[in-house]
Amino acid sequence: MSPYKYSTLAVHAGxxxxxxxxxxxxxxxxxxTFELTGIGSDRGWDYSRAGNPTRDxxxxxxAALEGGFCGHAFASGMAAIHALVTPLRxxxxxxxxxxxxxxxxxxxxxxxxxxxxxxxxxxxxxxxAVAAAMRPATRLVHVETPSNPAMVLSDIRAISEIAHAxxxxxxxDNTFMSPVLQRPLELGADIVMHSTxxxxxxxxxxxxxxxxxxxxxxxxxxxLVQKSAGAILSPFECYLVxxxxxxxxxxxxxxEENGRAVAEFLSTHPKVQRLAYPGLKSHPQHELxxxxxxxxxxxxxxxxxxxxxAGRFLGALKIFINAESLGGVESLASHSATTTHAALSDAExxxxxxxxxxxxxxxxxxxKEDLIADLEQGMKAI
Length: 382
Ligand SMILES: Cc1ncc(COP(=O)(O)O)c(C=O)c1O
What we know:
The structure is a single chain. The chain is an alpha/beta fold. Helix content is 37%, strand content 15%. Bound molecules: pyridoxal-5'-phosphate. Pyridoxal-5'-phosphate binds next to α3.
């Protein structure tokens, strides 16, 4: 347990001055290989796929921010999810939230299932559905909360109790919340996963992913995956994430404030249907959001009625950029059905509650009055 509070950790965990030069920023060690000190001995590093001093610093920071035992940085969020399932074997059973990021479903259905790993999708917003789906072969319950883009929450504590009673582990995709607003390990989960591409980097200039484990065996397991499968994050990308982490608590404060203001504006707009933002009292799981999260974030989705209306709205926006992704300083608006969730079949999209008129917003850190005015003029185009 660190004696420091969160913003201090974000600036300093893993980011102490370089012992050799005093450089205040973590040096970027662009070296694939390291001189050995003899046969079978080294200075802590031998080859950058297995470990790199810049990556080590990021991994230390990630572990500290999630309150975990070990951090592991991967080449993308998808590489981190792949690393989660790489140690599984044929015959193992995995439960996965039924409305996760579509890339997770594509990886599981088109590849992981072919290895004989049984992936079953379940409505993890209902802990009783998780309990009913558990089997003796269940090794992992993978939860995304809030889910992308429907903003459905799953109760991490309740699911962890159910999974642990049957010897399974729980991994949580914490991308939408960031470690500032939700710390799944404190709620009983075993492993946290991030697309660092989003809030951790925060500037939309790098793709990356992470796993944070809670036990020594996780360190052994995911180090072996990094070394064997090799989808590690490059030293320069590690540096970008380290840089982003320093301002993350500050950025998240503004994201939060703007997210709430935008949600309140949309909540009374006559052209908006099915607004999903866990910070609103009207969200069916608002009480769980208050209990489980440290804030409500800046992701929300709503329906403008049809694909044509969504197109007119997106086309009229001047500040919000019509682009996928989330968690950067700039506000983004996207049409979920044809972007982040295009990989799903029509039936799968319907089951995940993704309609043709659905718009997802990642509210950035600009002035909220400007953002609201932009949305207002976008609505006029419908
Ligand atoms: C919730 C969530 N998980 C995982 C991913 C995949 O991350 P990446 O794009 O870094 O591979 C994304 C990407 O949008 C995401 O939104």
